[in-house]
Amino acid sequence: MKKILIMTTALTGMSFAASAQEVTVLGWGGAYANSHVQAYFTPFTEETGIKIVSVDADNPATPIKAMVEANNVTIDVASVENADAIRLCDEGLLEELDASILTPAPDGTAAADDFLPGTINDCLVATDVFSTVYAYDETTFPDSPPTTIADFFDLEAFPGKRGMRKSAKVNLEMALMADGVAPGDVYDMLETDEGVDRAFAKLDTIKDSIVWWEAGAQPPQLLADGEVALTTAYNGRIFNAAQTEGKPFKMVFDGQVYEFEGWVVPKGAPNLEDAKKFIAFSTGTEPLARAAEYIPYGPPRKSSAALVGNVHGTDIPMVPNLPTAEANLANALSSSNEFWADQDTELNERFNAWLAG
Amino acid sequence: MAEISSSAAGPAPGRLTTADGIPLKTALAAAEARARRRALLLVLPLLLFILVTFVAPIGQMLHRSVYNPSFPQNMPATVAWIRDAPVGTAPDEAAFEALAADLRAADENKTAGVVGTRVNYEYPGSRSMFTKAARAADKITPPFRAAFEDLDSDWTDPELWQAMRATASAYTANFYLAALDRTRDVAGHVVQVEEDRQVYVKLFVRTLALSLLITVLTFFLAYPIAHLLATLPLRHSNLLMIFVLLPFWTSLLVRTTAWIVLLQSQGVVNNTLVASGLVADEARIQMIYNQTGTVVAMTHILLPFMVLPLYSVMRPINPSYVRAARSLGATSWTAFRRIYFPQTIPGIGAGALLVFILAVGYYITPALVGGSDGQLISNLIAFHMTKSLNWSMAAALAAILLAGVLVLYWLYDRLIGIDNLKLG
Q1: Contact A65 B373 (CB under 8 A)
Q2: CATH code at A51?
Q3: Which B residues, 252 through 281, put their C-beta within 8 Å of a C-beta on chain A?
Q4: What is the per-residue pLDDT across B339-362, written as a single tens digit (0 to 9) for each?
Q5: What is the pLDDT of residues A210-241, one digit of tens each?
Q6: In terms of domains, do A28 and A67 share one?
Q7: What is the ipTM of this complex?
Q8: At A234, is the secondary structure helix, strand, or coil?
Q9: Which of the four CATH numbers 3.30.10.20, 1.10.3720.10, 3.40.640.10, 1.10.10.10 does domain B200-420 have?
Q10: Quick one: A156 and A245 in the same domain?
C-alpha cells in the first residue's frame, strides 16, 4: 500500500512537471527586462499557457559558455548582443535557429524579407536595435549645449569629467568620429596601426578626465550625482531616467554607434520546442512594436516600425527617440561585429595596457 | 606504548602477547589502524566535499592554463604537416591542401570559430580568416596556395604559420608567456610584446605593492584599536568591538558604495571641504576612481582581519609584565619594544598574512572604485573569464598569482614560522 502511494505520488509529480510548461529567459534586467515582460512574456503566457521564468545577468552571454561546457544548461532563451551571438555560434555553443519558424508580417511578407538585413543569422533572431550615445545634464550647459561627438572630447568648451564604458569597443569608434573620420571609414581606419594610434591619441586628450563605467545602470547614476558632465550611455537607460524619473538628461545622437541584440538558444536547452515557440511569438510584428513603446530600442522588422506608437502611458511619440529614427541616423555608425570578433583580443589588450599605463 | 613495553620486555624469551596469543605490538597496531579508519570515515564527507567542490574545479581550471586542444582536435591534417616540417619552413602546396581539407571538415562540424578563436590569441585578426575560409571551403580548389591567397593574402604570412605551429600541440606554455607580456617570434624565440601591449607584469607588481601598502596601513590603524579593545574594561570594550564587527558583517558592496558616496567629487568629504573654504569649488579633490580610492576602501574593508587576530593575542597578555619592566627602570618605549610588542608578533603575523592574501585577490572593490590606475591583476582575470572568454589566459594569470602567494607563504614560514601564527 505504502509502495503504491509512493508510486502514484511520483507519477503525479511527473505528469505535473510535464504539463506545467515553462521557458526560462535570461535577460539584462532593469527597464529593458520590463519591456520584455510587458510586450513578450505576458501576452505569450496568455496565448499559449506556457509560463515564462525571467532571470537576469550583467551580460547574459557570459553564463552561456560556462553552462554549455559544464553540460548544465538551465536556461532556454537568452538575450545577447549580436557580436556575442556570432562568437558563441561559431564556437558551437548555440542551437541553430531556422528563419522559417518565424511569423510572417501581417501583409504576408516572409520573415526573412521583413527583418532588416543581417538581423537574422544562424543562431540569433534580433529583437531590437540599441545604441551607445552620449548624454549630459541640461542644467550643466544651459546656454550652449553640446551637439556633436567632437564636443564630447572638447574639454575647453565643455569642462567636466567624462563617463565612458571600460572597453575598447565603441570608444575607439567614437574617438575617430570625433577626430573627423566619416562613419563609413571608421573600421577601415581601425584595421591599420595608424588608425588605432590615432584613436588612442584622441582618447589620450581626455584620459585624465574619464570616469569608467561597466554596467549600463551606472552612467545615469554618474550623471545624476554630478560626478560626470558628459557620459556615453545606452540610449534606453538615459531615456528611461529622463522619462520616468524626470531627470533633465539630454542625448546627443551625433556619432552614435548602434548595434542589435536578440534571442539565442544555448545548445542543450531543456525546453527547446517551447523556446522556439516563444521566439517565433515574441519576434512577431506586433510584439516588437509594443516593446519599442516601453524602451526606445528600435524594432528590427520593417513592418513593426510603422506600428510603434506613443511612449507607454503618455502621449509623446516614441519614434523620434529611437536610434533608428531618420534624424538620428545623420552621423551614425553601425557597429561591425566581424571587426570586433577579429580584433577584440588585440584591441582590448592594448586598451587594458593603455588604461593601466 | 607498544615501543616501550616491547623494549622493556627486551630479550625475555616470552614476548608480551594479548590473551589470544597475538603479539601485543601487532594487536595494538591493528587497533590503532581501526581507530584511524573510523576517524577517516568521520572526516570522509568533508574530504569528499572539499575534493569535489574545491580541489577538482581548481585543478581543472589550472589545467586549462597549459592545455587547449581547440586546434589539434579540429585540424588534424594541418597539425600532421606542421609536425613533419621543421620550424621556419615556408608552407608549401601540401600544407595548404591539408588546411583546405581541415577547413572543409570544420565547416561541417561548426568548429571553424573555435579554431579561429584559438589562433586569434596568437595572431590577432585571423579569426575571421578561418571562419570565412571555412564557409568558402567547398570552393577552394587546386592550386590550393593560390586559392588561399585569393581569399586573404595573410594566409601566406610566416607569422600566421608560426601561430598555427604554436597552437598545434594541445599542451602549451604560451598562455604563461602571454601572462608575462612575452610572445614567440617567427623563429620561435621568446621576446617581449610591444610596449603598448605590456600590461600584466605591471599589474602583478602593482597588485603586490598595493597589497603590501594596504597591509602596512591596516597594521598601523589596527594596532592601537586592538590595544584599546584589549585593555579597556569588558563592558566598554564589548561596545567598541561592535563597532569593529558591524562593518565586518555588512555587505562588501554596501561598504564600497558608501566610500563612493563619501569620496566622490560631489561627495560628503569634498562638499565639507568646499563649504569650509579649504578647497575651491572647481578644485575638488579626486579621491575615488583612482588608486587612492582603491587603497582607502580596501584598507577599511580589510581592517577587521587585522584587528581581530591582534585583539586575540593582546587580550591574554598579562599587564604585570610591562609594569615589572617599568619598575625595573625601562622607559615606556623600551617596555613596549622589549616586552609588549614581542608578545603580539603572532597576531601581527596572522593579521598581516590574512590581509595581504585577501588583498592580492581582491576584485569587486578595485573594479568599482579603482578607475583606471587602481585596477589589480584580479580585474584582468575577471576580464578574461567574463568578457574575452579566454579562460586559458585567465587560468594562467590565476596560476601565477597562486604561485606568488604560495612563495610568499613559504617565505613567511621560513622567516617568522607558521607555528607562530595565532588566529584567535
Answers
A1: no
A2: 3.40.190.10
A3: 264-266
A4: 999 999 889 988 998 999 999 989
A5: 999 988 888 999 999 888 999 999 999 899 89
A6: yes
A7: 0.77
A8: strand
A9: 1.10.3720.10
A10: yes
CB count, 10 Å around CB of B35?
10
pLDDT at A76 over 70: yes
Q: Which residues of B touch A161 (CB under 8 A)?
A: 265
Q: Is residue A277 over pLDDT 50? A: yes
Q: Is residue B13 very low, low, confident or very high in pLDDT (cuts 50, 70, 90)?
A: low
A148: helix, strand or coil? coil
Do A21 and A49 fall within a single domain?
yes
Give this prediction's pTM.
0.81
Q: Is B197 on the interface with A (CB under 8 A)?
A: yes
Q: Which of B114, B125, B289 sits opposite A343 (nearest CB)?
A: B125
Using the beta-carbon criterion (under 8 Å), do A161 and B206 form an inter-chain contact?
no
Q: What are phi and psi of B331, to 5 degrees?
A: -70, 165
Chain A contacts of B113, Cβ < 8 Å?
Answer: 87, 89-92
A161 and A112 share one domain: no
How far is B30 from A38, CA to CA, in rounded Å?
71
- The reply to whether residue A348 touches residue B121, judged by beta carbons under 8 angstroms, is no
What 3-state DSSP class applies to B68?
coil
Q: What pLDDT, on the 0 to 100 scale, is given for residue B112?
A: 86
Q: Most A CBs within 10 Å: which of B256, B286, B389, B391, as the mutation test of the A interface? A: B389
Q: Do B266 and A87 touch (CB under 8 A)?
A: no
Domain of A316?
Answer: 2-129+260-328
Say whether both A12 and A120 belong to one domain: yes
Residue A231 contacts residue A219 (beta carbons within 8 Å): yes
CB contact under 8 A, A212 and B371: yes
The H or E element containing residue A127 is strand A125-137
Q: What is the pLDDT of residues A316-351, one digit of tens each?
A: 889 888 998 888 988 999 998 878 877 888 898 899
Neighbours of B161 (CB within 10 A): 23
